[in-house]
Amino acid sequence: MSQGTATASNQAGKTPIEAGDHAERMMNHVSAKPAILDKETGLTLFRDMTLGRRFEDKCAEMYYRGKMFGFVHLYNGQEAVSSGVICAMRKQHDWFCSTYRDHVHALSAGVPAREVMSELFGKETGCSKGRGGSMHLFSKEHHLLGGYAFIGEGIPVALGAAFTSRYKRDALSDTSSDSVTAAFFGDGTCNNGQFFECLNMAQLWKLPILFVVENNKWAIGMAHDRATSDPEIWRKAEAFGMKGEEVDGMDVMAVRGAAQRALERARAGEGPTLLECLTYRFRGHSLADPDELRAEQEKKFWAERDPLKKLEKDLTEAGLVKSQELRDIEKEIDEIVSDAIDFALQAKEPDPNELTNYIWADEQSN
Predict the structure, then answer these.
(1) I need a surface site. Which of 154, 170, 180, 340 has the fewest CB within 10 A?
(2) pLDDT above 70 for 164
(3) Does domain 19-345 have CATH number 3.40.50.970?
(4) Backbone dihedral region for residue 174 (phi beyond 0: left; psi -120 to 50: alpha; all else: beta)
């Protein structure tokens, strides 16, 4: 399989990078209007992205030490997408829907690191009470509608949240109802039926939703360019009369700018946006993946476009911060992650007597 993939990737004498247009699109396409970078925004984004990166690195350590079990899919390399979109939204007002690669989305949405890490350890202090694990993070308080193990499964849920926002305003005359929902999913999902069905309904009803495609070039071991008739996903919005935009997903300010434009349209009642973020995951599909299918040259190409290093360069070259300020943030984040580990390891296991809790609606809460 590995040999076949390499052969297909080098067709017509091309390198693995040149065989698809993913890298070329990223390098040649520059968002016309990136968000304005100021010190406060830059530090907020750097802190959020660093938390995501350091948290995931610690997850890998715990997994390989045999402290964490099950499937664990890490987000390293894609932090600019989560931070760029979610930090542009109104936390605990807007809604977020994730995938099986959901740890960093949860952290960006404001779910405490202790609760996320506890969930990965299956402890009762986890945000899903230890019942969900890595792929099923949920937090009502932080408007995280869940992580979903099956691709495309979360998009209809996100659509329902967006419909609720519009229904409250139009049918129930709640003028304060202007929440927007962000649905995150990967490039592989864009060949599934839920994707097209939900785009159709969202545009038909002008729902306030952002369809955020984290196009990291690979769907497990399937290269994106080999799996779809049109690799430019953002163009698929045209079939529904929807606004579509392609953005460099390794540049947090470019993502933030695109998200701000989409949010403005959504809150104004102008409907949904399909936002394709060209990004790359630095690790394998999951921690059980030896990552042998992707060419080393390709991985090196994207590693040089690390979104954290890009943001640091932008901040320091603009004279907004000193490097030491960023190192101090990293130390602060390391302490938060270490605290989350200690907390999760010491937390209690779920009580077996509560096995059937949270399955049916609680009459007392109705």
Answers:
(1) 170
(2) yes
(3) yes
(4) beta
Q: Which residues of 5-27 are buried (b: 16+ CB within 10 A; e: fewer)?
A: beeebeeeeeebbebbebbebbe
Give the pLDDT score at 259.
98
Q: Tell me how far apart the alpha carbons of residues 364 and 366 are, in angstroms, rounded to a whole number.
A: 6
How would you classify residue 114: left for phi > 0, otherwise alpha for psi between -120 and 50, otherwise beta? Answer: alpha
Count other Cβ atoms within 10 Å, centred on residue 361: 8
Q: CA-CA distance, 356 to 353, in Å (whole number)? A: 8
pLDDT at 355 over 70: yes
Q: What is the pTM of this model?
A: 0.91
Sign of CA dihedral 114, 49, 52, 64: negative
Measured distance CA(168)–CA(174) in Å, rounded: 5
The secondary structure of the chain in percent helix, strand, coil, rounded to multiples of 5, reads: 50, 10, 40
Query: 153-176: string of b/e by CB count within 10 Å (b at 16+)?
Result: bbbebbbbbbbebbebbeeeeeee
CB-based contacts of 193, cutoff 8 Å, min separation 6: 152
Confidence of residue 15 (pLDDT cuts 50, 70, 90): very low
* Among candidate residues 73, 49, 47, 45, the one with its CA nearest the CA of residue 59: 73
Nearest-CA neighbor of 184 among 98, 246, 274, 256?
Answer: 98
Rg over alpha carbons for the chain, rounded to the nearest Å, is: 20
Give pLDDT, residue 247: 95
- 3-state DSSP call for residue 301? helix
| Euclidean distance between CA atoms 86 and 93, whole angstroms | 11
